[in-house]
Amino acid sequence: MKITVCKRRASVLAALCIFAFFIVSMQGACVQAEAAGVSAGEKKKIQKLIDDTVIQYIKGACNYPAKLEQFVFNAKMKTDIAFHNVAYKKHVFRQFSSEQRLMEKYLPYAGVYKYTDSVKAAVKKQGRALFGESFQISFAVGDGFSTSSNYPLSHDKKYVLMNFTDWGDWYANHKYWFTKQGSRYRANLAVASYWGGAEEEITVYQFHVDLHKNKKSYIIKDIVFEKQIDT
Asked: Which of 148, 188, 191, 201 would suit a FRET pair with 36, their CA atoms being 20 to 30 Å apart?
């Protein structure tokens, strides 16, 4: 058992070393732009915002790469992300059910949420906090996995389906580097993913998140999947 654990730790360390080397090489191209004025405090706030609100959503897409082909930052994705952020808050999660009758009717991955006025209000509030006052709720609609959405609205618009990816033995690490142009900030993001037991087979997914400063906080203006790199 000890030998197995040691081998696994060595594999993980090797994976992280490869990832670190990859990040350093990419960061080198951004040093001049970053010097233009993204302060340490700004980096810290932007990173916290992304880590608190969208990083798990992005990693979920990497866990299920087929979704990356339809990774488009539109009204439906904004609504998807807003719901993802409130799904486990007490007043929303109270609406959750995995009753067999509902599972058979709507074919969700894990269950359904009643689409009540309180759920709508929570999604709208979260969406406007993340994406600005112009945010409007726009769920994808379809039962089962008929859409690429993680949280589609059922065909009768009574329930939000829980279709977020199951993590299982899948792992991911992520790193940031930042640039700025005028009032627009960009968090460049690399996500290294691998399956447990296959740490030497790393895939790096490159994204960027564009933000505008809004008083003391930031509004997310775009999330873009750029490319996949097999290391």
From this structure: 191
